[in-house]
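May I ask for a protein sequence together with how it folds?
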Amino acid sequence: MSTGGNPISHALATMRCDLSDAATPAALRSAERLVPGTKAIGVPVPEIRRLAAAWHAELKDITVVQLCEVVDELIAGGVREEILLGAFLMGRRGKRITEVPWPRIARWIPKLNDWETCDQLASNVSGPVVASDPKLVSKLEALAKNENQWRRRFAIATVSELNHRGRYFPDETFRVCRLVLCDPQPMVRKAVGWALRECGKHGSEALVAFLRIHAKEAHPQVIREATGKLPRELGDELVALARSR
């Protein structure tokens, strides 16, 4: 694992060798089945996380900005395992993740081409960054209007993270989710439902009020996902409203 010399100049090639050594045909088949359309080499997520932990220890002395340079290269090729490794490496920076500037994240977003990479980069990086500066929600609103489904999915996955780990941003969540309540893509609609449901875990009143207002413009799939933790009768009522639009 040792890089020798300048860690940044040597780390990338060794990381890629580590990933290649950990790849298996079975893991590739599994990735292609679970994440259709992904560009993968076949490394299981637990192994990628293990490598991220090892490389975090190896690169512990470099700055967040320097780590961003490493992640730039990992994400540039659009390979599933390299994107996930970059996301997990960033996530291990803890509270210092908020030092990642939004323009850097914006540079990475176009390389996301499936739900897994969208969700992991959102969970590990953009969610904590936006939570530290809620003005960035306007960036997510713009992404939610993008014609590319994975950019929309990324916006919603980021919003979902705003309501994890003790955080609660209902107004910001509703602002972004409102834009894709009837998205044409099932993978985006599912993420919207999950994001709303996460928000509702902190108190169902705000969620129910939002859904009552917007149910007729929402896709039933969104309402079903969003009301999964609500009393069944209330969920059925809201789904019926969505179907009546």
Notes: DSSP finds 14 helices and no strands in the chain. The chain has two domains: 1-129, 133-245. The CA atoms of residues 18 and 51 lie 8 Å apart.
